[in-house]
Every structure is written in C-alpha cells, then in structure tokens.
Amino acid sequence: MEHALRISYVNLGPLPVTINGGKIAKIMDASNLGEQLEAPSTIPLNLSGLFFSEPEVPAANAYVKKTLLQSPIIHQIVPQFMVNTSKPRQGLSSTYEIELVVKHTLLLVDGVEYPLTSGVTAAAVVPRTNSLGTGEDLLLVALSSGFQLLIRVWRVPRTFSDALFASQAETEPDTDAFYVYKPFVVQWWKLGGDDHHEGACLALSVHPAGLAVVSAAPDKVFRIYTCENTESGLQLLLHFNVPVKGIILHLCFAHPFTQPGAETQIVFMALVFTDHNRLEISLYSWYASEPILGNMEKVTLPLKNTFQFPVMVVPLAKNSSFLFVCADEFVIVTVNNIWSADYLFSKFAYDGSFPTSYHVSQIQSQSELDSATDEVFLASDSGVIFSIIVSDNKSLTCRPILRVGDPISTFTLTHSSSGEGLILAYASDTAGAKVLYIPALMAPETVTKWDKLPYTSATLLNDYKNWSPVVDVSVFDALQNRACAAESAQELWTLSGVGKRTKLTQLRSGYAVKRESRVFDEFRKADSVAFLAHEDKHYILCSMPFETRLLQYVPEIDENELDEDSDEIIDPLKEIEDSGLVFDAPTLCCSFLPDSNTLFQFSRNSITATDLEQSKTSFLTDSEILFAEIVGEIAVLAVLKNGHVTLEIIKLAKISDFANVDDLISSNLHFRILASIHTDDDISMMKSFHLKDTIMIVCGTFLGFLELLKVDPLSGDHLRVFRISLNDDVPAPYMGRIPHDCVFLETTLKLFLGTKTGEYAQIDLDQSFSPRISPFLSLGITPVSLVLSERDPHFLFVCVKNLWLFNFYASPSPMRVSFDEKLDKMVLLLVELPTQEPQHLRFAFLREDGLAIGSIFCHERPLVRQLGIGEPAKRLLYLDTANVFVLMCKSKGQLTRLKFADKKSFRMLPTMEIDSKSGKPRTDWIFEASETATCAMVWHINRHERVSKKVIVGTQLDDNTGNLKILDISKVAVEGSRTPAIRVVELRSIARDQPVTSIQQIGSTIFFSSGASVYKTSYSLENKKFRPVSQYASLSSTVTSLGVAGNDVLLVNTKFDSVLALKYPENEDDTDENTDTCAKEPAVRFKDPIPRCLVNVTSVGDKLAGGDKLFSTLRVFDPKLTHPDHCYSVTMSMIPRVYTTSFNAFWAKNRAEEQLSCVAVNGQVITLCPVYDKGDEITTLNANLARNHHLTESTALSTVMDKLDRPFLEKVTGKGFQSVHKPFFDYQANREKFVDCDVEELSRASQSSILL
Predict the structure, then answer these.
(1) Which of 478, 560, 613, 787 could cysteine-pair with 486, CB 3.0–4.6 Å?
(2) Quick one: signal sequence residues (predicted)?
(3) How many CB atoms are closer than 10 A to CB 257?
C-alpha cells in the first residue's frame, strides 16, 4: 500500500558511517570485532536530526494568484436575459429567462459567479429581436485590459469548460445541480496596442432592433459594428471607425422609424465636448442594407454655451426624440431639431434629487397612457424613482412612484411572475443592492412634498451584499476556540460604505446556508438525526441521550396554501406522539424496508418493527448492540456479548400481521441471521454499503485499523478484503488516528474517511479493492461526521463543529459552509432532505442552538456579515484583549468619535469615558469639538512576564494641528446590569503642531508621522513615563503611511518619494536629550530610486510591496537589487492596498505562511502567494492537471497554459467557443507573471490551502 505520509524509520542495529576518507565500517559491540575501530570524536552522531529534521525550504521564485473575493459593484442588471437551452454548442436552436448581473469583475449568471480577467468598463445586451428566430439575447462586454467580448450563454454540465477541454460528463445523471447556465466568448476584439489605456472602451450602445453596435473610446473615435445573422447565431462584422474631434460624453441609437421604407434606417446620436470647449450634437444616419462607407450622413448641431452638461441622454421611441436629463431640468431634442438646426428645445424644470440612472420598461405606471406617449423611469441618489411621461415632445410630467432606503446607481423595474405587483432590482455603488417585491406604486394623490416622501412598502427577495466602497481594513489572527478549530489563521474585516450607512463588515468566502425554519431548541442535545421517507410522507428522527423523538417533515410549504388572514407561523416539523417506536431510549439505526410500510428501529437493548400504527418490540437480555446499519433488507449489527464483539448479518422482512408475531428476534421469517462474524477488535466505527450484489462492511478500531469485509446477502458468505493501519506515519507522541465515520461513492470506488481527531482522508479502491490512501487533512479538533449528498454525489459534507464542503466539480480542496446570519453557530450533525429548488441542497442541521432546516446554494459565493454603525466611520482597529472593534468616526457628537462593536455578539456597545485620576465619568470629552481620529495602533507593553495592551490614537484638529492620545480600553458591565459596556480612559495626550497620520511600533519604540517628518518615543517602565518625543527622520514630502518589516526596519511611504526602508537598532539609544532629535541619521536599508505614488507599503519575506495608485499596479521590491528595474509589477483592475496576511486554512502545513493580499476600494480581494516553482504546491498542481487532462506530469501546467493561449497567437480579433476567463484577455503586462488559479482548469486542480 502506498501511503503519502509514511516516514521511513531506520533500524538502529548496524549503522554504516563514513570513516577515514570513505572507508566503511560498522559500529558494533566491541566483543564482535577482532581489531576495534574507534570513531573519530570530530563526527558527532545526531540521530534526532536523521529522523525528524526537515530540509531547508528553497527560496520562493514564483507567485500564485488567487482572487478571494470579486468586486460587488454592479454595472448592469438584466432580470430577463433570454437563453436558448436546447441549442447545440456550435450553433443555435426552447428558451428560458434567467437573471444576469454584470459586476465590475465578474458575470453573475443565474446566481453563479464567473470571474473576468479585468474590470468591466461598459456592457450592453444585444436584444433577442435579431437572433434569427431563436429569441436569444447576447451580452457585449468591454474590459479595462483593452478587450471587447461578445458572450453567449449555454446550459451545460458543470464539468464543461470549453472546446479545449470538453468533458463527456453528459453521460452522468441529469440533476439540477449538475447543469448550469454558463457564459462563453463567441467573438472577441483586442481594441488597442500594448498599452491598455490606448484602446479602452468606455461606452457601448446597441440598436434597439439589434442592427448595429457602437463602441466608443474615451476620445477621438468610436467604432460601428454591423450585426449579421448566421447559422451559428449573431455575429459582428468588421468595424468602421468614425473620428471625433473631442471627448464623447453620451451616445445612443434612436429607435427605428415606423414609416414605410425607413425600418432599416439607423440613426445614431453622439454628444461631444469638442477641442474648442463646446458641446455639440452629432447625428449619424445610414441604412443597414448598405455599406457604411460612402453612405453615412452626418449632421452636427453646436449647442450654446448656456446649455447644461446632461447627466444622461434617453432615446424616446414614440416621440422620435432624445431626452437630455440635467441636474435641474429636462430638455427634449428632436431629430428634426438637429436636422434643421432648430434651437427651440422643449425644457422642463426638475427639482428632485440628483438623477443617477434610467430604465425604459414595458410596464406603465398609469394604465391610461396612449400609444404615442413615452414613459421613462428615472432613479436618483436619494433612492426615489420618478416616472417621466413625455407626450408629443411638448408635454412632460414627472412624479415619484416609489422610494427605497439607498441611493440608486442602476436598476430595473419589471412585472412579477404572478402578474401582480412589480419587481425592483437595484444596486448602489455606496450602499445596498437588492431585489424587492413592490405590491403597488405611489398613487399621485398621496404625494404632497417630494422632500418628505415615505418609503415604499416592499418585500426583500434577494440581497446582493454590497461591501464597497472599502474605507479601511483590519487583518488579525483568528480567535482559537476550545470547542472548534478556527477555519483560517487570520480574518479580514473592513469598514464599508459612506456616511451614516457605513458598516462593519466581515469578508469571507464559501457556501451559504439560508435558514428556512425557526430553530427548534428542544433538540439541541440530540446525538443523531435520520431522515425517513415512506410514500409521500417524510420524517426526521432525533435520537437524544435518553429518548427518541419522531418528527413529521412537510417539505417546501406552498405560500399560496397559507391563510393570508392568519398570523400563525406554520412549522415544517410536527412531532408524532404515538408511532409504535421505542421513545424511552436512544436509537442507533432506523429505516423503512424497501417497498413496504415496515419500519425497523434498533437501540442498544431492543429491536422494534412498526408501521407507525402498530408495532412489535423484542428486548435483548444478555447482549448489547454497539452499532447498527440497514442496507436495503439487510441489517448489519455489531453485538457485544460476554466481552466479545460479533458482526451479525440479518435478513429483514416486512410484517403484514403484527398480531401473529410473538417474538421478533426468534422469528426466522422476519429476522433471519445469515452470518455471524467474530472479531477481537474494539470497534470504533461500523458502516455498511451496497455495491452491486454485495454488502460492503467497513469497520474501524480504536487501535487505528480499518477493515473492509464483503458479504453475499443471499448466502451469507463473507470475505475480508483488506485490513490497514492508519497510523504507520504517526510519530510516537501522537495519540493516533481512530476511525469515526465513512461514506462510500460507488461510481468511483472512493471511500471517504473521518477520524475522531478531526482528520479526513480519501481512500481510492481499484477493481480488486486494493486501497490507496490520500494524505490526511486536519479539518478540526473534534470527531468527523461525513454526509455524501444523495441528490448529487459530487458534494461531500464534513462536519467537525465547523462545516466543510468538498465540491468535486470545482476543487479538490474543501470550503467552509456558513449560515447567512449575524452570528456563527457550530453545526454538530446534518441530514439531507428532498428539495425541488434548482442548484440547491436542503438539510436538517443540528446546531448548538437546536434543529433547523436550511438550503445550501451549490456554488461558492461571498459570505458577508455586516453591522450598521450609524456614523461615518473612517478607521478600524481590533483590540483582542476586549474582543472589540475600535471604530474611529467623523461624527458630530464628541462621545461618538470612538465607537465600539463587540465581535462575539456582533453588536454595538455603549461607551463610558472615565477620568484617569478620579475614576469617575469625565466632565469633558476626550476629543475636542473639532478633533477627529486619523489613525490608531494597539500598543504592546512588555512588563517582564506579561504583555499589556493600550490603544494609541492619532488625531487632527481644524487648525491643522494634532494629538497623540494613549487610551486604556476595557470591557466592563453597566452598573446594575449584566449589559457589557466599554470603559475608555485617556492616559496621556501629546500635542503636535501637525496632524498625526500614521503610527507603528518596533520593539518598545513608538514611531509616528506628522507632516513630512517621522518622530519616535518610548515608555520607561522604571520611571513610569514617556521619554521625550524626538524627530527620527525628515523627508522631502508628506509621509502618507508607515510600516514595519521584521523586527528592526521601519517602512516610510511618502507622497512623492515612493518607499524607504530605515533600519532601527532597538538596543541603541540614538536620541540627543538636549535637542530632542536623533544624534545620527537613520540607516537607509533601501530606497526606491524611482518616484512613485504608493498607497501603502508592507513586507513579505525579504521583499517589500506597495500599491501604485497612478498605474493601478502592485509593486514588489527586492532590496538586494539596486538597478531601476528591480521591482516585480502586476497590473490590476483596482488601486491595491497591500497587506501581509496568513489566510491559511486549518489543514495548511504552515499556517503562518505569508501572502500578499491586495484589497481595493471596489471590494476586490486578491492574494499573491510566493512559492518555489519545484515545491509541493506546483508539483501537486502539475500532477492533478496531468490526471485531469491526460498529460505528462512534468510539463502539465505549461501545456495547459499553452493550449489556453493557442487560438489567440498573433491575432487581434477572433471567433470561437472560449471561457470568459482566459489569460489572453488579461493585461498584456501580466503575461507569464504568475500562476493564475482563477483560470477554471487550474482552480479545479489546485489544492491551495488559502482560505478567507
């Protein structure tokens, strides 16, 4: 047997050693030697190093990139995107409407995330009206990397990637979870040269009938693509460039004319700010049936200097005009106005809040609108949506129809599927993003004042969980819980949002559980949970420590069946009092026999058969059942009798007449023993599975052995297949692995094993059932329970109080499963329930607080917890001694300048400011009226055998001065109650003549920046006071941030001077007591010779890294190199703020391993992990790629990447069938810079232990 973790122990008998220049001798007992040889004293035999020393790890020479979270910013929502579900992969052919959301860095298709290589700059839907009779929409997307993609959506198996690696998985079972709607690129264009800014597309416009598409660059040019129908679907022909003398502000197509002969005439409008600082409207017209060259007509209308810059331009179909929406007025410009140079535009005043977006829908807010009237829905930054009705280009009415609590950046308004009420889907760049059901709009007579509009009554259908903009970031070590292990070594928390909508946010990724019932706390002490199904009825059996309880489960109650006039909440679980089961003892196993109404129940001392009305029970007198399993009509029991364990194989039969059965056990008709297998082992686990015509029995022992038996259910013949030890590679001090649970996947002959010490392993069996064990993963510290989904066996759940999911479609590594709730709850057990909801699995979860029903979305997504602060918070700090977050706010009240959130209870805590001398509440405030916090740090004070922690806060005042405040923060109980509160004591305040911008600590020395200088101070434990503040360094520009590298290097980041690394010897006192300045200049360990504008700087290993905000680039510096090209650069679709993190999962070999994590204001989180290109991670990736794609292992990675790029070599346009995330679509500067695990083929093979 091959074992991945085996350690070869050497026999210490005759030990060969090298002596005297290579002659070999053996050190033995002296009596066995004729002439004794003496080993030289200069060669010590360090045997411990021979067995357990690890080889030196080679230095990292490559990077592995992984996006942990994509940006949540939504560009466009398409609630009814039409997809042809039966088209072949090479062409078109039944249709289905799905929801498609275009986010900044991904496409959300029917709820599933598909990442893009770079940020979206523009997107547009090519409508279904021109799709050659198939009625299918297409999506056109422009990327910031300079590419433009035409995307079509297919319904394909989850294992299908593209034409290069087409899987034949269609032969597998057809389940809802197995198929997904997936976007593929069918046509692409490289818009510019190597500089992605040169050809970037900032706006896309599509003809309402799908006849043409316009792609506009920032200035000077736009491109016209003519749409053509082919047998394979719609395609865009070669583009036609139209030069423009100025900056394109707005562009749109006019709606098709209805006059005979003008159906194919295309009219396109562009609003340009010319090189002469004038606004002008250009109208282009041509016929779709003719070539553009030589047939395009252009009319230009220069606008007066008094014409306002419009926020947006809306084409009006029925009025053949354009609606210019300005900040305080509406202007209607007709086609005739432009053609005839008529400046008599219709203008209408607007006194609503600032307009942000519009939507033209098929619905009408008023049923009496005639066919010659246009209605446009206009959203604003106050959350109000207005109805704009235009008639005959001379009449315009504007009225509010609904209001939500967030500013709206983009939205859609559609009819609900029932035909009653409306569905509002909206997104905000700075607040929430939700889908709401609105029963009715505001009636005109209810609106009195626009500035006091009530919020519209609505029901939340979906929450997109927006956490942008990210204001500040805090990364800290995860709290180690005694009850369960921390899933990742570190946590990521942010401040997100603006103003009073700012929220404290925890960012994670994994699989989300939506709780669908109340929590039944009376079952929180259950030992096991089982699901029973008989005919059309479903039951859940809970085995308690001293009893058993049976619940009837009503799956997925139809809301239409509920009584609308009743406030009663109908629970999906109802307890059955009289079922014939034994209720006064815990149950080991319970199951219905196939095709019968007979239910068998096994407890430790009894066996019961029942049809839930009448029953028969037999009790054991001289034996005890340790484990019980029912497979079909076969029961497998582990019975303890007279100190020995016997495996009993029993054939069960249904009972038609319970009155004629005297004793259940002695009835050979209903309880026939096929075989008895004696064992001398102390069994820790027993599981049974059905494989073809054989019963497989897996037994585990407390000595760490695993045994597989085969039993013939007809004859009772049995055979031991194998017996292996799980502890061959376990060092002596370790307690050893004890099997606890296992499940078997018949299709692949895989046995999944969990131990009592929290470890998991996969055992592969060949056709002869020879086992091969994969390396063990440590997923927790408690016994492992396993659940393999019956609906789709690609999903394996591992429960160790934390809940993990192996999604074998996506990755060989597990991901966390978490409830979408404010507080995390430990999951003890789970059992699968039936469901009809696509892409979901439903379970009954036994949590620490009770039993709950919930469904899991079968795709990974962000897991976001948010807590409203109620103040505009700017800085975030975690104080572990009190387990609270310190929130520095820019609020009006002085008491709320510092707010505190409890991490455990996830709620805000009241604050008490205490005077340091009297110990009573202060009569004044810690912060002055114009003083706000700008930065903070947890100050560690080494007090001999313990470390105390205080908080140092830097502040700024209106007069451009600042303070350095030392605060003592602790958690106390409010007097007279058990409610926790935060006690804040100001220990000292150090005034500065400029604002304090950053604080760091090296050893016992505190560094802080103010203006263009860095100062330092320290605390004397002997004198119990601070030493005088001295200037440590003076820079040529303002210091923007400080950082620390190692134990003796201070990183200084300035406005214009990039980064400096200053070496500070802790044991050296360089302060001049007379001048309060440094006696000597600080030693410069590294200085970037090129001026750069960096956001911040951090260190990872011996490298320095910073985010360049002028070029949206991550810079990694090697201080050992001095030439100008000494930095490693990665171009990103964001301005990265760089942090040194250890987002390593619990099973990682080195949980302290560091990565570079880039967090952006747009909410995107990317990690770059330094690796050795011949190390374990790349070697494993090569091996998995070789197995998945039948390649040579040594070159599998390079072969896959070459195949992904092969269709694109030396091309700037192309057609095909490609994944939306191709390395070729990334920035040109990133070519071959890293191993991109966001590529689907690599993510399926990567066993990365990085976990957010």
Answers:
(1) 478
(2) none
(3) 15
